[in-house]
Amino acid sequence: MRLLIKQRVFSWSDTYDIYDENENIRYFVKAEVFALGHQLHVYDAWNNEVGRISQELLTFLPAFEIEVNGVKQGTIQKKFSFLTPKYEIDFNGWRVEGDFLGWDYDVYSQCCPIIHITKEVLHWGDTYVIDIANPEDELMGLMLAIAIDAANCTN
């Protein structure tokens, strides 16, 4: 299955619409405008909050907590590195490999690739594609991709 994450270009905060491969709206993401650090809320198509990504404050490098349906599922923290971003990910037992700066990376469960995330070029606003092997990983894969995007955008 495939999800498309499209950033709304003319918005006061980080706002994304997420569509399935048939262009049906599946989720949307909205940031708190005046929050300390990134606070992103993920809603399903029926306007129910299904996830939250919260920047942890008082850390040297950006770190985020990922919640799904009100339960903490893990964290992502940027690691000190030169030239290319690297992350320490403690989320769902997954590991992530690839080019984070170029938005071309894979998510693995044990030794098997389960999700591939890329950035599409030549679009008005950022557009990311998430290819998911197992539909049960849809929401968790989306939450991880959004958390990585938040970490990439945080100075």
UniProtKB/TrEMBL annotation:
Homology family: Belongs to the LOR family.
Organism expressing this protein natively: Candidatus Eisenbergiella merdipullorum
Protein name: YxjI
One Pfam entry name: LOR
